[in-house]
Fold this protein.
Amino acid sequence: MGYRKNFAGIIVMSLFMIALAFGIYFSLFWNRKVEGEARQIEMQIPVDFRNMDYRIEKATREKLQWKKVLAFKGWIFNHNSGSSDRMLYIVFYSKNDTLIFEVDRANIPRKDVTGFFRQTAGADKHGFEVIVPLSKISEKDYRLGFVIEDESGRYFLVIPQALTDIENAAMLRPETVPSEFLSHNVPAVTKNPTRELRFNIDSISISNGYLSLNGWGCLQGMKSGSAKFFILMKYDDTTLTFTGEQMVRKDVTAYFRQSGLNLDSSGFHARISVAGLEKGRYQLGLYLLQGNESGTGYSGKFADINK
């Protein structure tokens, strides 16, 4: 009787070990990278913006071997760059998420681009190709951006296109923003500030009739949380106030790690229609309201409205 129990125990243990081995094998198999797959990284989004040109020629959902991926192809360059190789990163960002992937093939020769823009001969490495695993993508819609790191520094570009319907087809569309994602002009909401505001407007772009702003802001000595962001646009004696959308910015927490504060929710994004703005040069600022605390400030950055 004891022999039978021991034998049954051996059988059960053997089956368990076989199942465990198969589980480990399939886990390693499905998680291994396909050729050209991008590596996800953590980095501080640059605060500088440079004059860049780009084109995404391909943005599709595909299946490579056993893995579902998003495949991108195109070109991008910094007008002030030289002929040396650069590092390139593609950024996916939404209200709840910011994902950054290193582009492995970031220096593909594109003499057609060099010729079209009449650049210096030899500065041809503008092309890129990147494959992003769908397993890393948690939401169905993302805005896109690029970070270029070259001999002159690291720079961020937000593009006026959105990646939509990722679950089914993944389509890159000109960013026609639903009304709920547009910034709205509201009456002045600023109160006397209770704390110092630390903030930066990382990128400013005007395209397809919209002024797009991205950045971060936090109140001195406070962790980020549920907050309201308002964009201030000052022109002559007039100040306009627009609503902003709160975004996840884990890189800000990493940058200020010595503070010990969680600043993951410190990001903001704004999409302002220029149709109702007068022509002129607007100084940009931020008002942040978090509970009963608030802070306000103006940057040294401007938006030129020349519609």
Notes: The first strand starts at residue 39 and ends at 41. The chain has a mean pLDDT of 82. The domain at 39-174 is CATH 2.60.40 (Immunoglobulin-like). The longest helix spans residues 2-31.
